Amino acid sequence: MVARTTKSMQTIEQLCQDMSCHVKRGNIALYNTLLKIFLNNNDVRKADRLYRQIKRHSTPTAMTYGILMDYASKRRDLRSMIKYLDDMAAYSIPVDYAIIEITVSTLCRVKAFDLAEEMVKELHRGCEKLVPPRFQQHLLCKIDIRKKRHYRRKQRRVNKKKGL
Fold it and tell me: What confidence category does residue 11 fall into, taking pLDDT thresholds of 50, 70 and 90?
């Protein structure tokens, strides 16, 4: 199985090199798929190299940034999240529901529940089209659930230390 996976990864890498050499403008769907494969295999170095290729030979999309931000979110890497949001602004790529959801999840992962709530409310006030009332309610409910889960776990740890 490992040999087959290694061979597949070598084939994918060769495909990336061929695309960059022979194709002036890459197929973003293919690039995004490859990016997701690299990140699923935790090959950050290759994913980063591919991301630079995407910027050089194509135009990143909201999907590209969704893939990158989802991976950064799982690693609780706020610095990368901010960098990707800045890159989106530089490419004039509008923030979509998925990006907002990933950002809220990241803030919850780092226990910044109040900041997540504030961001959702501010986005709703600033642009109701971007965060309509139902989506706002969904996000606030999600934040509340994660906050309660965090405090329940914290309370269990405290009780365990006390011997309760």
Answer: confident
